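Problem 3 from the worked examples.
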Amino acid sequence: MITFRKTILLVFIIVFLIGMRAGAQAKEITVVASFYPAYITELNVVKDVPGIRVVNLTTGAQGCLHDYALTTNDMRTLSKADIFVVNGAGTEGFLEEVAKQYPKLRIVRLTDTVPLIENNPHVWLSISGVVVGAKNLGRAMQELDPDRAELYQKNTDDYVLKLEKLGLKLYSQLSPHKGAKIITLHDAFVYFAHEFGLEVVAVIEREPGAQPSAQDLAQIIEVVRKCGVKAIFSDQWVLIPALQTVTLETGVPNYVLDLAVSGPDDPEAYIKIMQKNAQTIIEALQ
């Protein structure tokens, strides 16, 4: 009888431990992105991995996060996060506040090891920069959830392959325009231009929302005329005063590019946006 009771107890303990392990494995992992570009990278790296909850912290934001202030709901979301995926390089001005409030929260900076151009944070507009970011996140997810490391590695490899194919395709399409001189509204597209051999000869807004002086505008207009600039690229259809002045004085049209900071809830969204941007540039420079 004693042996039987011991056996029953042992079976109960084993079942209990198996249940505990299964429960631990089933625990949902919450991965929070600071904004849209990081969110799209997340969607690809954790694709089809069960038990992963992916959140875009700043869904309502329509631009970069330079001046974004965290809300109470944002902080509540971060309190439940297992990992916080950010662009880094100074994009998220609130990052220090988050690290202080949640010292145990794992923060992954997608731009780690990416060479910055003059401390410009808009690395996600470089396809090669997004490749590095995907690899950084893939490694972080494997460390956080080693039981499913192979899934994260496969997803990362698949997304990197898609991005590299996109880069080769756009390089081929844009190669006839290599060396073309362009003007941009602000410095966000410097990475894209650098990657595909275009030269940004002037930027209208050195800081987001900062209007150039009359002297600055005169210099920009002179550069446009001297360099034979064919197009000005902005991220908005509405012509702000400075942009309108340059287009009226030079006759050079404005073309709108997508900053990739908002869009559909689609893992392929970034690839589609960059393809469209390339087509817009080709159209403008022909």
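Problem 4, a separate protein:
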Amino acid sequence: MTDVARHLQVLADRTDVLIALYDGFDRLRYANAAFRLAIGIEPDEEPTWAEIVRRNHAQRCGVVIDTDDIDGWVTAAQSRRGKTPFRSFETDLQDGRWLLMTETVQPDGWMLCIASDISSLRTDEGKIRQDRDRALRAAHTDELTGIANRRFVTQRLEDLLQRAPADPAAPGCVCILDIDHFKSINDRFGHPGGDIVLRDFARQIHALVRRSDCFGRIGGEEFMLLLPETGLSEAELIVERMMSAVRRSQPFGPGKPLSYTFSAGITEARQGKSAGQIYSRADRALYEAKMGGRNRIALDQRWPQRRMPGA
């Protein structure tokens, strides 16, 4: 360990500032003493963020989580967590402290979290900020499924197009996913049954989404999946794994007579194109998948071929 690294380690463990580093799978890889003490984590533990949250909620320690549905809360939070290069928000701890938290995310999904104690702010000011953050979360969350909504995922698409390099080796991809024969499901089980299938679909796909990806419901039975720094072939493999998971799913429980599938259209994100143009191309590919028999993937391969450097 270099002198700089050694001094950094010593200072990090002596500061009252909370510091943590999560990998691309949202597993804790480093936390200083202040963070571990506040969240209730032993020095040799490397739990995932979701495991930390569920344990804190059950034991009433760490961050205050005001919900009776911790699974739904985790899903909604993960739909936003790590989807932007930087964000800041405020949160309170069970010990009474009020923190300003920042999240800085690398393209590969690794996240640096730093939290400072801002308890000296007047209580009413903190309450106003907390209400603001809750309102923002609600504005970005689909009420039925708990994942990101159209507003949030569309903004992330805009961000992806702005970041897309002019000639990437692995461009980002945009996928439109649509549940097959959803009207028949509604006709057979009623709208409450259709809602069960929508929530099940969101849960199945959400479980396979990477930290750097973004998944949201954009309307009805239609969903959007953003895969940054991912080429068409890799995107196809990712969606195929999702298709396998959904085919095996039993939304009404074991022994209940319903299985379902979905179709997908995938296109590349290209710099200089609008979100509407990209969506239209992915939607056109989805239409081809539907017309081809459903329960399948169609790739939009009509973009002009890129020229290799020096060609």
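Solution to problem 4. Residues 182-206 form the longest helix (25 residues). Strands lie at 18-22, 28-31, 86-92, 98-105, 111-117, 173-179, 214-219, 222-227, 262-268, 297-299.
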